[in-house]
Write a structure and sequence with these properties.
It contains 2 helices and 2 strands; from the N terminus they run E-E-H-H. By secondary structure, it is of the alpha+beta class. Strands 1-2 form a two-stranded antiparallel ribbon. It is elongated, with a radius of gyration of 19 Å.
Length: 63
């Protein structure tokens, strides 16, 4: 596949991938978003109405 290169180990097993971001940047952004979402799936959630109220009072903390 053009713009995609695999890094292989001494046994020929694929270990990593190089992606041409000029060609595949939008697809990479989608993949990255999924990875971030999955990594945060067990984090506590905040009720939307509660968050809006905190923001209105200037109490919400950034990341």
């Amino acid at each position: 596949m053009k713009g995609i290169q695999f890094v292989i180990d001494g046994r020929g097993k694929k270990k990593a991938v190089l992606i041409d971001l000029e060609q595949w940047g939008e697809a990479w952004e989608d993949i990255y978003d999924v990875l971030v979402s999955r990594s945060r799936k067990d984090e506590p959630t905040v009720d939307w109405e509660e968050l809006k109220a905190e923001l209105a009072r200037g109490e919400a903390k950034a990341g």
